Each structure stands twice: as C-alpha cells, then as structure tokens.
C-alpha cells in the first residue's frame, strides 16, 4: 500500500533496537491457572505463565466465572449503550457501591479500563479546576501522563517517591492554584511502594488534593484488599483512589472512588466516561463477586505472599540478580533488550515457561528485565523449575550473578 513504507521504516527501527513487541499467542486454561496453551508456528504446547497480572488467579475462580456466565445469560452480552443513554445496568450500580465500600468512600465511578479512568479523571480535574497544577511522580504510568497532558494544566514532576522534593515543589506554587498530587502505591515495573503517609502529610500541609493509583495493589494489600492505603490506614486522607478490575480482581474495567461530589463531577464532565459504551453487565457482576470474595478471604493473598518469598529466596540462592522491593513483583534485571528477548525465547522454547521481556519504552533503556509475578497457584515445583531454568540460562549466556 502507498503509505506502508512510512510505517515500516519506524517498525524496522524498533526491530533493530530489539524493542519490537511480539505477542505470545495464548489460550488460558480455565481452572488450571497459571497454565496456558501457547500457539506458535502451527504448533500448540503447554506453558506455565509467569508474568500475568491476574495476580491471584481470580479470573478463573469458579464463582467469578459463574457470575459472568450467569449474568450474560440473564442480561445478554453488551450494556446496550453509554451510561447516559440506556447503558446503565443495575450490575454497574451494585459494583460502584461495592467499590465505594472497599475504599471507605462515599461513591465510585466505573470506566472501561484503568487506563481510561486515569486519563478521564486527570484530564477532567486538570482542565476544569481553577488554576490547576498537577504534581506528578516522575514514574507515573502512561495513562496518568496522558490524562495530565490532555488537561493542559500546568504540570510539575517531582522525584520518584520523594516527599521532600514534593514539599519543595508545592511550596513554590502560588496560593491561588488548585494543587493535585498524583502518584501510585505499587509501581509495577520496579515493584517499589510509595511512602503514602509522608506524601499525604506533605499534600495536606499545602492544601493539595491527593490522587492515588492503586492499580497494582487493589485486591492484594490491606485486610479487605483495599490496597496499600487500606493497609496503612490512610484511605480517608486520600481525595481520590483509582483502581482496576483487570488485575487482582481478574476481570476488566477501571474506577475511581472519592466523595459523592467528586464522583458526580467526573461523571458529569469526563468525556472518557460519557461518550463510550458501558462495561458489559456480566463483567460488572463478575467483578463484584471477585471483590466480595477478596474482601472476605485472606487465603489467596497469604499463599501468594508465600510463593513470592519462596521465589526470592531461590533466586538469591542461585545468585540471579533481582530487584529487592516490598511488593509481589519480582523484576530480574537483564539490562539489554536483545538478551532480554533471547532469555524470554529460551525459557519458552526450552522449558515451556512464559515470561514477557520488558523493554523500552515500558522501562528506560538499559534497565530491560524479566518481570515475574508469582501467584497462589504456582506450585513449589513450578518455582524450582523456573529457578533451575534461569540458572542454566545464566550459565549459557554468561550473565553476571549477584553476590550475597
Ligand atoms: N495504572 C497503572 C499503574 C498501570 O500499570 C496500568 C496498566 N498496567 C493502568 C493504570 C491501566 O489499567 P488497565 O490495565 O485496567 O487499563
């Protein structure tokens, strides 16, 4: 086609840099989490998935699957419209109530994904509030960055997880600005956790709102899975908590929670909420069941923590370098895009282990990594097998080992 050359030139650059994305063609096997079938070159083989964000396997929990199937049978597939024009289903409202309760807030608002919720909420806050300035952690997710950019509000970037830098930057802002501090709890690529208490204290001192993305923490932390803010007893001090239904809850969709006025404001002005078809009712009802389950059950979280600790200990024993962080995410640093892809390919081809290489632009150049997310359904034997495979590849590729 006449324009293809324009596209291909840039794709060729990506390929030459080792940053072109190849997707694994998987069929997940319901009830056998974390097993999947991988389809490649006309062949199908069994693999163990090590990089899923269905962190607790809830996407295959029988109650969650049943809720989705039953609601699809009862209500049909799609919502039938935007939330405003015939698309609000009772299951959306039940889910919003459940989410508000999860975070101890007055209200919640659903979006079609976590990406859309960040984009829509931040672009609305930044564009509609008087003299808005958004203070954004340096490592915030692309969805927050895009929302801030789209808002055209003034943006100030503060050093990652550094409340003192935030304090200095807030102090410089004129009194008549509406200040919004945007940050995450668990950062997905390094697995570090924000000092939420200190950040909230600094924000309060300067009369700033707080916007917290708990996408990688909801369902995972806190006695009811309300996230790191719940664990640390800080939910009531955060203006807006944003989350996803697509990771630990195993379904799909995004949301914000906050005061009734805040949610009504976003509901009334956010184009990313207003002008798009609502989530299927079956998705909403499956998410509600998943959230209720994780509010009441500690079993999945406890078993997952055990497997995370076990994998870390085994990696240490073999000297495989990994990032030490307080979360459930284990990044194994390779620091080279080509080697990162090669390791991922070898793991798949030689061992039936699937872990996606994480390359630029998802992480900065030179910090390429394999990101492991052990779940409650990875067995001890899975962990042993993974570490043996990594150890043998480390030897084959002459990669540096960590010294204790
Ligand atoms: N925020 C963060 C920090 C994320 O990592 C992601 C997705 N990986 C999102 C938001 C978007 O969530 P979703 O996948 O539900 O669109």
Automatic annotation (TrEMBL):
Superkingdom to which the source organism belongs: Bacteria
Entry-linked Gene3D superfamilies: Aspartate Aminotransferase, domain 1, Type I PLP-dependent aspartate aminotransferase-like (Major domain)
Pathway: Porphyrin-containing compound metabolism; protoporphyrin-IX biosynthesis; 5-aminolevulinate from glycine: step 1/1
Keyword Acyltransferase recorded: yes
Pfam families xrefs: Aminotran_1_2
GO molecular-function term, one example from the UniProt record: 5-aminolevulinate synthase activity
Enzyme class: transferase
Keyword hit for Acyltransferase: yes
Subunit structure: Homodimer.
Family statement: Belongs to the class-II pyridoxal-phosphate-dependent aminotransferase family.
The name this protein goes by in its record: 5-aminolevulinate synthase
Upper taxonomic lineage: Bacteria, Pseudomonadati, Pseudomonadota, Alphaproteobacteria, Rhodobacterales
